[in-house]
Amino acid sequence: MNRAAHLRYCAFVSVRKRLAWIVPLALLLGLVVFLLGGGLELSLVTAGLVTGVCVLAVALDSVRRHSDDPEAQTFLGS
């Protein structure tokens, strides 16, 4: 398995493991928007944007953590 495929697989696994909180968070925020009078369209757009941003953030963080670049690692050890 080459490096790019390995990083994609790590990102996929990280996103799949965290879907248990990403989806309920997006639905909850969509419900809040709907209850505040935003309408169905705005609540669906909000849920979609929250889901997209969370998935992208988790995937990018996973790629950063699994890369071998020492500058990309966390600063807890320094």
**Shape estimate:** elongated
The multimeric state of the shown protein is: single chain
**Overall pLDDT confidence:** 84
Query: What's the number of extended β-strand segments?
Result: 0
What proportion of the residues is helical, as a percent range? over 70%
Largest sheet: none
**Using only CA atoms, what is the Rg?**
16 Å
Look at the helices and sheets and give the structural class.
Answer: mainly alpha
Beta content: under 5%
Number of helices: 2
- Give the end-to-end Cα distance, rounded to a whole number of Å: 32 Å
Task: Characterise the protein shown here.
The chain is mainly α and 78 residues long. Helix content is 78%, strand content 0%. The chain is built from two helices and no strands. The chain has helices spanning 3-35, 39-66. The model has no long low-confidence stretch (mean pLDDT 84).
What is the secondary structure topology, with strand pairs?
Blueprint: H1 3-35, H2 39-66
Helix pairs in contact: 1-2
How would you describe this structure in keywords?
78% helix, single chain, mainly alpha, 0% strand, 78 residues
Give a brief outline of the structure:
The protein has 78 residues and is an all-alpha fold.
